[in-house]
Amino acid sequence: MKRFFLLAVVAIYATSVGAATWQPAEEPTSQNQQNQSINDADSISLVEIQQIEVNGVRAKHDTPIAFSAYSREQIDERNYGEDIPSILANMPSVVISSESGTGIGSTSLRVRGSDPSRINVTLNGVPMNDAETHSVYWYDTPDLVSSIGSLQLQRGVGTSTAGTGAFGASLNMTSAPISAEFAGRASLSYGSFNTAKQELSIASGLLGGHWAVEGRLSHISSDGYVERAASDLSSYMLQAAYYKGGTMVKLLSFGGVAKVYLAYTGLSLDQIEENRRYNPEGEIWGYRPTASGDVEYAVVGFFDDHTDNYTQLNNQLIFNHVFNDKWQMNATAHYTYGNGYYRNYKNDQKLAKYGLSPIAVGDASVARTNLIRKKSMVNDFGGVVASANYTSDRLTLTMGVAMSLYDGAHFGEVSELELAPTFPTTEYYRNYTTKWDASCYVKADWLVARGLKLYGDLQYRHISHRISGVNDNFDDVTGALQRLDVDRRYNFFNPKLGLHYTFARNHSVYASAAVGQKEPTRNNFTDIREGEYPTAEKMLDIEVGYGFNSKVVDLSLNGYYMLYRDQLVQTGELSDTGELLARNVPESFRRGIEAMIEVRAARWLSLGGNATLSQNYIENYVDYIDGVAFERGRTTIAYSPSVTTGAFVDFHTHGFAARFSTRYVSKQYLTNGEYEDLTLPRYSVSDLDLSYTMSTKRVERVRFGVKIGNLFNAKYCASGYGGSWLEGATLADRKSWSCYFPQATTSVLANVTVNF
């Protein structure tokens, strides 16, 4: 709070020095005009050449693909320190959730019902998804949003890109371009649940006409809405570039250190009723006396270090070159280092699950006790992505290649046993993963006739995935830990074809068909029955749309039909080691309509909204409960709301801005069996963002902002999980259990940002 107050004082002082805040700047001399023209030209050229690195993956306004995008300015307006999913919350077909309840720490993103492992994420064309789980853990790159120049969320298969296959969406981001002039930014946020952010960035501008350096340091912390779901996130970003004419070489390094208290166990409805902020993670169970003089087995405390700790360092060496007005190229070498662990306090554990023999306690032999375990991983991920772009009056051609290697190790140890204080730290499992990924693509935009464009995109991808060693899953039947010996190779050909037609000046229509294919995740291989390995998934994505764009109104309608073959879904079965089993289901699909509108009613007022109506089904689904198969016919895919909507009103005048936004998510099923007692209730949540921006001769811009989250204090849950068991032999004997993740009630985040 003191830091926030000090920066606010500095900002107010800067805006009050001299009475120049509202005075026009002096007219420049002719020499000043000439220097300014040179600087402007350098700035434009430098920005343009830095954008080459994403030309290969970005959709354009006339690409027959559904997408939404934010510019740097729009990102900055939403940047209070929350993770990137929170920034995207009001985009069409998007659902976000947060384990801590605040949007900081462990957050996740779903698009059209597709989970994070099906959303391809890149930064400057470089894959960000974990090679094994296919997900992005946003707290591993803290405050990345402060270094993002622009982002584009493509819904559906999208354009060909590097990394894991996009089965629901692809999110491609660019790092912010280096400023051609000396600049800096200081930003502080503080608000509810002791949430705080401190950020400082400095850019050198062009040095000697060729060199530029920029850096950022950030720290974000929060106690979390959920008890003990604290986050402590430190990060950095460094860019150094050499620029000459049409060539730029840039070194980009970013990353951070994250410490997050675990909160991945949800609450039952009874627990929510009693205390919706309760966090069962880290519970220490033991015997304690009661008021009546008896002894009960209950929670006697919490383990302080029940945390996830991770360090990730991302490095990119980027080369951009413009040959002439038709040809340009980009090549990026990248390397990511990851090292981390999480520590758990585990109550009443069977020692055999950890490869340990019973221990002697006095005259007794004890096979169960409380213990502390630590699961660790270390990994290296590196490769190259490159593309070449050709542009003429009628044809735009892009060719690209990507190659990467992931090498990682997972290992775990028992560090303490409650009944054996001198127990030495003992490793109980270790396994290794190697994954090769290589792809190439060619894309073409051809202006066939006036207003009519033909789009084609052909991609080939090869994956080689090897897992070996001992896993942490314990088999009660064999009495041993799971041994892994996975060696799988995949070859995917993913064609895409589309048409875009612009007519009557402001109107356009498009249609496209695209094939996407995706390999299984690590868990799909580890949580199996002996000899039953999953196959790759395949999808045909058909999209049709209409758009209208004018100075006053932007309107778009998009229809999609995503037909899956062999989609991997959890069936309710248990693997040999007791984990939930995912199986390929032969037929499933998603179809829906997405509508978006924005009206600029006046210079000071704009409003709009979006809505998605969808059906998401598995054909002939078989649900397994306690090993008994029940044919359920056509069922709704879990976590797939049939209705999502969003709306906003934006008022802005003379530096003041007020933005009200609201979003609605309909009921979701927690399992694929479509049981009404296993649902996530519908919810609606609204936010209000107020800001005032001013400038002086000494300071380029000062922005004061306040975000009121969940304005109407809705008590809702954005995610959950559950299951069933049988008390008899029929479906009528089915009973259920479920857990939910409550999100924060009304909260406030204040921010002051000074750009100089």
Quick recap of the structure?
With 756 residues, the protein is mainly β.
Q: What is the number of strand segments? A: 38
CATH class: Mainly Beta
Biggest sheet features: 22 strands, antiparallel, barrel
Unreliably modeled segments:
1-44
Question: Keywords, please?
Answer:
6 helices, disordered N terminus, 22-stranded antiparallel barrel, single chain, Maltoporin, Chain A, 5-stranded mixed sheet, mainly beta
Describe how the helices and strands are arranged.
Elements: H1 2-16, H2 30-50, E1 67-70, H3 72-77, H4 84-87, E2 94-98, E3 107-111, E4 119-123, E5 126-127, E6 148-155, E7 169-175, E8 183-191, E9 195-203, E10 211-222, E11 231-244, E12 247-261, H5 269-275, E13 283-289, E14 295-302, E15 307-322, E16 327-350, E17 359-361, E18 364-366, E19 368-391, E20 395-417, E21 426-449, E22 452-475, E23 480-503, E24 507-518, H6 522-526, E25 537-549, E26 553-574, E27 580-602, E28 605-625, E29 628-636, E30 643-653, E31 656-665, E32 668-669, E33 679-680, E34 683-694, E35 701-709, E36 717-726, E37 734-742, E38 747-755
Parallel strand pairs: 4-7
Antiparallel strand pairs: 1-6, 2-3, 4-5, 6-7, 8-9, 8-38, 9-10, 10-11, 11-12, 12-15, 13-14, 15-16, 16-19, 17-18, 19-20, 20-21, 21-22, 22-23, 23-24, 24-25, 25-26, 26-27, 27-28, 28-29, 28-30, 30-31, 31-34, 32-33, 34-35, 35-38, 36-37
